[in-house]
Amino acid sequence: MSSVTVTGTVEKKGFGTGTWALVTEGGETYELKDAPTELCKSEQKVSITGVVRDDVMTIAMIGPVLEVQSFEILE
Length: 75
Fold this sequence. Notes:
By secondary structure, the chain is mainly beta. It has a single domain, classed as CATH 2.40.50. 0% of the residues lie in helices and 53% in strands. It has no helices and 5 strands. A 5-stranded mixed beta barrel has the order 1-2-3-5-4. The mean pLDDT is 93.
């Protein structure tokens, strides 16, 4: 699995307790896996480096699962 870097806005998605997601400027949504607490703030613009996990299924099913390796807050 190779690393990818994506930039976008953090949003809370889904039902119940919900899940954290990154929505890119192009409208693609990634479900964040193992996201640190500092990353989980709505409307925060960030750049995230991680691995897209094709082997992970989730209840939310909002998009590809992005396992967070590192991140940078842009604003």
